[in-house]
Amino acid sequence: MAIEPLSASIVNLLSPASASAKKPEAGGVFADILQESFDTARAADTADKVSALELLSGQSDDMTGMLLDAQKAEIALNLALQIRNKVLDAYNDIIRMQV
Description:
By secondary structure, this protein is mainly alpha-helical. It has helices spanning about 5-15, 15-20, 30-55, 65-95. It has a domain at about 30-95.
């Protein structure tokens, strides 16, 4: 039974397609996870803004699509914030360790 590191599991949750293509590098895993979560949140926010502008300008009449994009953006932002909070908690725990 092979034990997979926790960081690889988190990367798989964030982006299943790209996680299998690249292996996490030592030393940059936390930064990569945090950057990917913020990139996902930024992309979801951009899609939400585009769909809202299309609805407001009359280019689209898909109200449910706009609402779904808004929910996706909110969930992606919450995920990014939770990952950031966990990374900061881990950092603070390491700093408080006595040698």
